[in-house]
Each structure stands twice: as C-alpha cells, then as structure tokens.
TrEMBL record:
It holds the Pfam family SdpI. Residues 18-63 form the DUF1648 domain. The lineage of its organism: Bacteria, Bacillati, Bacillota, Bacilli, Bacillales. GO terms for biological process: response to toxic substance. The keyword DNA-binding does not apply. It comes from the Bacteria. The chain crosses the membrane at residues 12-32, 52-72, 118-137, 143-165. InterPro entries: DUF1648, SdpI, SdpI/YhfL. Keywords: Membrane, Transmembrane, Transmembrane helix. It comes from Alicyclobacillus sacchari. This is Putative membrane protein.
Amino acid sequence: MADKRKSAITWWGWAAWVVVCAVSAALYPQLLASVATDFDVFGKPNGYMSRFGATIVMPLIMLALIGCWHVLADRSEARTVHDVLANYLPRVSPNWLVGIRTPWTLASDEAWRRTHRAAGALGVVAGLLCVVCAWVVPLHFAILGTLVIIFTWAAAATVLSYVYFRRG
C-alpha cells in the first residue's frame, strides 16, 4: 500500500512542480526587475528579490519537498521529523522569517510565546491525525483529509494568536 501511495503522491507532486515551473516561466517577462516578496504587518513591502529569484524560489522549494518525500515516505523518520518541528515551534523567538507571523504575534512578545506554545502542541496532534488519516483512509480522501487537518491547525493557530493578543 505504501508503494501505491508514494507513486500517486509523486505523480501529483511532479505535475504540480511542472505547472509551477511553466507559470513562473510564462510570468517572468511580465515581472518588474525587483519583486516584493515580504510584507510588514501593515501590508507594505519590506523585502524584495530580483525577478529571477522570485520565479525560481517556489519551484526550488517544491523540488526540495518532493526530494524529502522520496527520502522519508517509506520511513518512520517522517513522523519523527514532524514531531521535532512541532516541538521546536514553541522555542522560536519572535522574528520576521520563521513561525506563526500574524499581526498580533508580531505586535506582542507574549502573544508570540503563547501562540507558538499552543500551536506546537496542536501541531503534534495534527501530525498524529495526518498519519492516521494517511494510513486508514483511502488515498483520494486521505489527501483531502490531510489538507483539512493542516488548514484547521493553521486556522486555530491564527485565531489563538488573536485571542492571546486581545488578552494581553
């Protein structure tokens, strides 16, 4: 069953990668020489890349993820990697690059700390649910189920960041 899942996910991964590469290539001539790639809490650009960098970053990230899938798909280390990342989340200091970066967590160190602590714990639970979903539910529903779990976790983390900010 793992081989069938791996080949199906690999097929979708490569198809998505080809689409992203094609869209990047098609949009490249239309982009400005400098493209905004990062924004502050007010929505104003504060980070820029060359158009080449902006169109190559996403395909490279996707390629790295596809590579990770090939390495970890048939191993129990995939679960371990997720747990390490989820457990590391509460230890991330406030910054503009890594973590749950909502206007509320960026405005308050206490909201940042509490949000990341809760999101780390919820991330471990979400990871366990994703693993169960991937192995128990049929493939087509497992992909949807995993996406629902991940988006629910992200929405919960966002709502929690607002709640913790309002509580002060």
